[in-house]
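Lab meeting prep.
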Amino acid sequence: MIAKVLLQDVGGYALSKGIEHKKFVTQHTHNVVPQNDIQFLRSHRTVKDSDIAQLKSWRSVGVKTAQVMDHLIDQAGSYSNVGHTKKDLRNHFDSVHGIELQSSNTDCVISYLTVKAKIDPELVFEYTIDEDD
């Protein structure tokens, strides 16, 4: 059921859920996250394009993700200025790298089967390419 927030004539708000009304508390009922811990909230973490570019560049020459993260922390001045965690960086790299590998693996299989079909006339295979890919 959808609740509506109603502004009351006497001030304040009330939540309407059908006929039943409940009082809406406008103050926080819990402690807010301290400013120096905000970077750990998932909603506040983003991996910047420049960080991704550095990660790809450094990974292509064999530098580990943890070492790239240390470099990003040094560049930003502190861990809280980076804007993401090492795990976020690793997850992003793995997801992008996985897509690239999947595409590369598909191309390899098609090439392999094409050559095999030229060598062995009894080997027949077909494939289709989705428009999304």
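Slide two material, second protein:
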Amino acid sequence: MPALSLCTHSDPQETETPQMKAALSWIHAVVETLDMRELEAVITEDFTYEILPKSLGHHPRQREEFLLYADAILFRFVKDFRATIHQVVQSWDAVVLYATCQAISVTGHPYTNEYMLVFSLSQQVDGQFKVRAVKEFLDSKYCAEFFPAERRRRRELYLRSRL
């Protein structure tokens, strides 16, 4: 079963643009292949990543810090990640996606979230697009409940493993 499904009423030509391909390549690297080289290939040298809203307490990350974060956190905090894209809005240098997901946390608990991903894109010399920035809006209420509980569960598993 693919990790990503596209459930929109958009014209297929709109979802197969070079801009959309760049956004989907980023998602593919982050949630399907978990491949650092693939991820590095789809982002620009001046790439930035931000989790929003700011009330969640995350700071913006530049390319190198994001790559470390992806490898240490994003690639590891859930398994069996399945995302559904419900709506796509595009312009020449941006793609906005509304998506939902389901996954299993590292402690075995269900993880479901809603996302609004804003991809800022940069056209390359070859005409293709790379991702210059991602702003990832999460369900703040869900995150405020899930992540503290998940940290407690991880701590308990760690303590039990030391016995």
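Talking points for slide two:
The chain has one domain: 4-161.
Residues 140-161 form the longest helix (22 residues).
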